[in-house]
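Ticket #4471: structure output looks truncated?

Reporter: J.K.
Steps to reproduce: submitted the chain below (241 residues) through the standard prediction queue, then opened the result file.
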Amino acid sequence: MSTTSDSTNIDRRKEPSSSSTAITDPISKQDGRGLCLAETQIENPKPLSPKPHPPSITQLLIDFIDQMETHPTEMISQGENDYEKDLQQLCTVAGKIYEGAQKAEYFFSSACIYRVPEDLRKLNERAYTPRLIAIGPLHQNDEHLQTPLQYIKMSYTNYLLSRLTAEMKDQQELEEQTKLRVLQKCLAEMKTSLDDAKKCYAEEVTMDEEMMLVDGCFILEFLYRCRTFDDVRNLKASALL
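Returned output as attached by the reporter:
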C-alpha cells in the first residue's frame, strides 16, 4: 500500500502544474503533413526618423565654446592666457568665414554683371572702356566721361517722355502735367526695383532711382531712333529699286 501511494505521489510530482508557465520549443509544432512550423514574431517596422539638417556655423561655434568651457584641459593645455587667445582667434576666423559666406550668397547668387578681368582688359583696353557716355554705376564717375555729352542722356529722356504726350502739343500745361505724372510713377517703380538691380552686380555699387531712370530712358530713346533711322534708310533703298 505504501509503495503504491509513493509511486502515485511521484507521478503527481512529475505532472506539470496548471499554474506553471509552459515553455514551448519554437520548432515543436507540426502541421497536418508532419512538417515542423517555427513560431515567428513579426515586429512593426520602426518609422524612419527625418534626416537632421546640418548645424549652422554659429551653432557649431557655440557648441565648441561650450565644450571648451566644460573640458578646457582636453581642448587647450597651454594655460589660461593661451586659452583666451585661441578662443578669440577662433571667434574671429569663424566670424569672417560666416560673413564672407553671406556676402558670396548676396553678390553671386543673382549677379550677372561683372567687371572685365584686368589681364583681359590690358589686351585691348579701348574695347572695354566707355569713351563717350557711361551706362550704369561702374563707370559713372570716370574722369574722362565728365563732359557735356552726359547731358545727352537727359535730352533723350525728355524726348522719350514727349512721345507719350505727342497728342497734347496744343495744350502745353496739360502736356507738362502728364510728363510729371509719368515721371513720378517711373521713379516710384525704380525705387521698388533698386535693391534687385544692385544684386545684378558682382560688387558693391552706388546707384539710385535717378540713375536707373535716366539711363533706362536714354537706352529706350536710342533704340527708337535707331529703328526710325533703319526705316528711313530702308524706305530710300526701296525707292531706288
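Triage note (M.O.): checked the attachment and the full C-alpha cell line is present. Helices lie at 2-14, 57-70, 72-75, 80-108, 118-123, 151-164, 172-199, 209-240.
Status: closed, working as intended.
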